[in-house]
């Protein structure tokens, strides 16, 4: 039994990673703030307060007795410090907190002995007391907990909890924001698999996802074009096979009565027409396959392809930089495309010169076949590249061919990254162009 693979969603995976990163970042910030800002400030404040408490105790002992009461009143009103002769007799033992420990350390450094601050409750107020030297005796100096006013531990806990909640929320929000376009692409690809043609709107997406969406739309269009071409191809095959089959059926019926050499010849031609059609369809299918490159002498290869044109009708013009050029090309595809252009020129321009040109351009190499035939109506210049499209209405192989030649040419060119184009010439005729983009020689 195969084990079921556990798959985690992209949202959950990204949410965990983002949350972990954000929490780690928050912890780092809190640790840095504590180590370099809060703790030094707390120690400096505790040191100043310890100095003020010790100074208050020493000043009280040096004052005349009649002014001490006024001093105590001013001290509690101004600095929130109280003086008494001895420590509270009923102290409360509780955890003091970080700042109180800093204050105890500061008092120990100034007095030379360590003592815990005594905590007591007076009404609803909490006080902290320390016995400090004052004129040969000890004097209790106290301060209310309200004077400190800071709760660093609570502040840190609050910051951590708030940061955790914010990190989780931000991670989920960012993950969903990232996954939303991918979900749309998933739906689009699923629609393509069902034969639909989705259009993914990507104007508000990041550049990388927008590029992926554009490629998905392009792929969907290519799939639709392939399905349309398949339907057209099958319909054209069924249509074109009916004609020779009908002729063959008629010839067989006539042969039953009396054998005739002409009927046998018609059967032969019908079989040949069917074989040619099937061969063209196979060539169209093979156009989707990538052909390996071969090192060719460009000018010699063109001259070899052009031998199909009778002597006296061919004008071969090769640009000077291309005469000695050796280049890597898919030879069969190159020969098939240029050969098809020359064959069409011979078929539709039975008289006049046929010019085969090769020009070196910044964009690459352009190979052009020019004739002085009837040309193609402008509205059909692009349609002739569709399978089984014929400019002539008679689907005769003797005049119009099977309608697959230019479809094969475009398939071959697009597979190699080339461009083919047809243009009517001034004064009559057609220019069939093949552009091979610049490639390393």
Task: Describe the 3D structure.
The two termini are 55 Å apart. 55% of the residues lie in helices and 15% in strands. With 441 residues, the protein is α+β, with helices and mostly antiparallel strands. It is built from ten helices and eleven strands. It is rod-shaped, with a radius of gyration of 47 Å.
In short:
The chain has ten helices and eleven strands. The protein has helices spanning 10-62, 65-79, 98-111, 145-148, 152-193, 207-257, 261-286, 298-305, 331-348, 405-416; strands at 82-84, 118-122, 125-134, 137-144, 294-297, 314-318, 326-329, 354-361, 364-370, 419-424, 430-437.
Topology:
Elements: H1 10-62, H2 65-79, E1 82-84, H3 98-111, E2 118-122, E3 125-134, E4 137-144, H4 145-148, H5 152-193, H6 207-257, H7 261-286, E5 294-297, H8 298-305, E6 314-318, E7 326-329, H9 331-348, E8 354-361, E9 364-370, H10 405-416, E10 419-424, E11 430-437
Parallel strand pairs: 6-8
Antiparallel strand pairs: 1-4, 2-3, 3-4, 5-7, 8-9, 9-11, 10-11
Helix pairs in contact: 1-3, 1-5, 5-6, 6-7, 7-10, 9-10
